[in-house]
Specification:
TIM Barrel, glycosidase, Jelly Rolls, mainly beta, 8-stranded parallel β-barrel, single chain, 48 strands, Immunoglobulin-like
Length: about 800
């Protein structure tokens, strides 16, 4: 018999069939073998696709199954419907219907797999899911933001026993939140096999109780499961490797593991001269746990971790490795242009990269736990995370979701706070405080190394609510300066700006437009609870006890259209739009959050027919002074106050407007706005020229409409058609227009204020992929990306 690997984790994302619609399936008739589409039984592949139960029994139906890969979001594939009472997924979900869908996949398990443990893990399914395997009802899961796993060992068919069928029903009719949530299996699925004696799921807990520059004590608790009938004496070897793959410490223990039992083993390993994880140097170590039986390795489990210390102080805020660090954060939902919530891992990293380039060092995964790949990326790039529980809910389901988040995420160095709720109705009540206390106690028991917080928008000082958590979150605390007043009244309270700004602006728009649903970038249409990023950040810069801020939001997201609804289908809160194109306030954040000299001016300088009109020109910079120059004439030099904008009133004349940033009187940086001519061509700006041939890696290609001189035409809305040939596909398109009803799964997209975006996904085969952009009356453009196999 073929030797099985110690542990195998197989990505289970490919070769699914998808049916959009409902199929009636009896919940359970007998224990197993309910037949129909939940199994293939004796049927040939293909035949089963038409067979389903209805209320009269099993019958043939002509069901249309599409071939899909995961991650998948069927919501984004649908058409917008203007109906505020669309089921219960109204405008707050972006006017895209939910509904029900089915996923089905056949797969084979080798004969040698018999006698091992087979576990399937779904990282996230949006909607209530029900899973059948080979006709057996396996489980139902509610909660779209946390994963779930099922042991399939009994119900699988091994070798000659036949093929296996998995069927997943996703009922996405009911919303869980008030933002776009997508529909379907939108995160990865994994099939994992292990020996009966193995490290449990999320089965290591790594803490660093003592850290100094000289050495770190690394505590590794390993949860060992023996699912066999025999008690065993095993050897647990834990080895620690540095980022270069050098072993830096290890521990060995002999352990008795009783049959059908679970054992926890503590090991302490000292790492000399540890390299600390920080936002500037996100250094990672790897712990390898080896389970050995009679000298043979029967399980091998890896955990990535970091060595760092965190501390929060009521007066001085946050300390990372003993150094004070202001939290420069954004809150974010999950979605992105072209893909809905089904982001390939590389797009998750792209979003984080854009935030980091803006100077942000922290991410709040509002309002739920993020996908595991996001945390892994934050560990790698040095982005702090406020990891968030979905709801104030101590019911069995609520607690189980919270616990899974904690078990899953507690080894990530990036995670610095567990946020247990957001703006719940029961804030400031005694019942709310009881529920919150249960969540806080549960959290502290599972992870005593990080503080717990709650993100409140009312009830801070009532019902004993704030006393239950370690850090009190202030959502929009700048209203009436209540955060500052609370600090005076409760000087021992550790506070954080858990949510702020909600600054509603539309990229490239300089006048509010209620008909089209656009908000000016001057910030003249901000909701009553919101404020400008300037106000939000100035408060933090002046009051260290606020610890930092999480701006609402880094990116526009689908749903929650505010202040307008239809035709708006997405929010305007982002510092970037849904494609990741910066709005003007992006540059304010860069001015206060980064030190590389920069200057930005707005609005654009193409106002045909507005000659002589006085336009307010605003400038953000982190230099000492800025001089504004119009067509070679100085309009004056102003002193920079880094936390505020500069402003000039300028009579419009076409030409060239330049902001020159100076330090010590010398020009160090400049931004030029040129009056653009007629749209004449297209420019393509791929984020990278190479991608990995894994069928998933995705390269965002920014598409600009330019005039004959190559200047961006800031009002252009030309329709661009994309042709992608070779080793890749067009995954989706977008343009950041919050009122666009064009489909994101399409080969054409209009530009919005000069820009649109194409997402090009690598195929599984290496080779070049050509991306061509064509538009009537414009010179077309082409780029070639190289898709290659990863070097081993
Ligand atoms: C907050 C809330 C967010 C979002 C935001 C809009 O109160 O936590 O989810 O709704 O307001 O301004």
């Amino acid at each position: 018999m073929k030797q099985q690997p110690a542990r195998e984790q197989r990505l289970f994302d490919q070769d699914w069939h998808f049916y959009k619609g409902d199929i009636s399936i009896p919940y359970a008739v007998k224990g197993g073998m309910t037949g129909g589409i939940t199994d293939c039984g004796s049927l040939q592949e293909g035949e089963w696709l038409d067979i389903a139960f209805n209320d009269k029994g099993m019958e043939h139906q002509q069901l249309e199954w599409a071939s899909v890969g995961l991650p998948h979001d069927w919501c984004i594939e649908q058409q917008y419907v203007h109906d505020d009472l669309l089921g219960s997924r109204d405008g707050s979900h972006g006017y895209l219907p939910g509904g029900t869908g089915f996923y089905r996949k056949t797969f084979e398990i080798p004969a040698e797999g018999l006698g091992r443990k087979w576990n399937i893990r779904f990282d996230g399914v949006s909607g209530v899911s029900t899973v059948w395997v080979n006709g057996h009802l396996i489980g139902e899961h509610r909660g779209g933001y946390i994963g779930f796993s099922y042991d399939l060992s009994d119900v699988l068919r091994y070798g000659d026993e036949g093929k296996n069928v998995i069927l997943v029903k996703v009922d996405a009719t009911e919303p869980e939140g008030w933002w776009y949530e997508g529909c379907g299996i939108y995160r990865h699925v994994w099939l994992e096999q292990t020996h009966l004696l193995h490290v449990g799921e999320f089965g290591t807990v790594i803490t660093t109780p003592e850290v100094s520059r000289e050495q770190a004590v690394v505590n590794v608790r390993t949860i060992l499961c023996n699912e066999g009938t025999q008690s065993e004496t095993l050897e647990l070897v834990t080895e620690i490797y540095d980022a270069d793959g050098q072993a830096v410490g290890s521990a060995v223990d002999r352990i008795f593991a009783g049959s059908y039992g679970e054992r926890k083993q503590e090991q302490q390993i000292v790492v000399e001269q540890p390299k600390l994880w920080s936002t500037d140097t996100p250094y990672l170590y790897r712990a390898v746990s080896l389970v050995k039986l009679d000298g043979e390795t029967v399980d091998r489990y890896e955990t990535v971790f970091g060595i760092r210390t965190i501390r929060f102080d009521a007066n001085e805020g946050f300390f990372l490795n003993g150094e004070p660090l202001l939290i420069k954060g954004t809150c974010n939902h999950q979605d992105f242009a072209g893909v809905g919530v089904a982001l390939p891992d590389s797009l998750i990293e792209y979003k984080l990269k854009l935030l980091q380039e803006m100077g942000s060092n922290a991410y709040r995964s509002a309002h739920h736990p993020p996908t595991p790949e996001l945390l892994a990326a934050c560990d790698r790039i040095g982005m702090l995370v406020m990891d968030e529980n979905r709801k104030l809910d101590s019911s069995p389901n609520g607690l189980s979701q919270l616990k899974r988040m904690l078990y899953r995420d507690r080894n990530h160095p990036s995670v610095i706070i567990w946020n247990l709720e957001n703006e719940e109705v029961l804030e400031g009540t005694v019942m709310g405080a009881r529920i919150l206390k249960t969540l806080a106690d549960t959290t502290r028991k599972i992870d005593p190394t990080r503080p717990v917080s709650a993100a409140l928008n009312h009830g801070w000082n009532e019902g004993g609510y704030s006393e239950v958590v370690d850090i009190v979150g202030y959502n929009y605390g700048q209203r009436n300066n209540l955060d500052i007043r609370d600090h005076e009244q409760y000087p021992e309270r550790v506070m954080i700006g858990s949510e702020s700004a909600s600054y509603t602006t539309t990229r490239g728009i300089y006048e509010d437009d209620p008909v089209r649903g656009y908000c000016s970038e001057y910030g003249t249409n901000v909701p009553s609870w919101g404020c400008s990023p300037e106000r939000a950040w100035s408060d933090v810069a002046q009051n260290r006890f606020l610890t930092g801020v999480f701006l609402w939001t880094g990116f526009d997201y689908r749903g929650e259209p505010t202040p307008y609804r239809w035709p708006c289908i997405n929010s305007h809160f982002g510092i970037m739009d849904t494609c990741g194109f910066p709005k003007d306030s992006y540059y304010y954040m860069q001015a206060v959050w980064t030190d590389e000299p920069m200057v930005h001016l707005f609005p654009h300088w193409t106002w045909n027919g507005a000659e002589g009109r006085v336009i307010e020109v605003r400038v953000f910079s982190n230099t000492e002074t800025v001089e504004l120059i119009l067509n070679g004439r100085s309009l004056g030099e102003q002193q920079v106050n880094r936390t505020a904008h500069l402003s000039w009133d300028v009579g419009y004349e076409p030409g060239e407007l330049i902001a020159v940033g100076k330090i010590g009187g010398k020009p160090v940086t400049r931004k030029v706005a040129v009056t653009a001519g007629q749209a004449a061509g297209i420019r393509l700006y791929p984020d990278r020229s190479r991608a990995v041939a894994d069928g998933a890696d995705t390269v965002p290609v920014r598409v600009a409409v330019v005039d004959g001189q190559g200047n961006i035409v800031p009002t252009a809305d030309n329709e661009v058609r994309f042709e992608v040939e070779g080793a890749g596909i067009l995954l989706g398109v977008g343009n950041g227009n919050p009122s666009s009803h064009e489909p994101d799964k399409a080969t054409v997209r209009r530009a919005f204020n000069g820009w649109c975006l194409a997402l090009v996904q690598a195929s599984a085969e290496a080779g070049p992929v050509t991306v061509r952009a064509v538009s009537t009356g414009l010179a077309s453009a082409e780029v070639v990306l190289q898709i290659s196999k990863p070097s081993i």
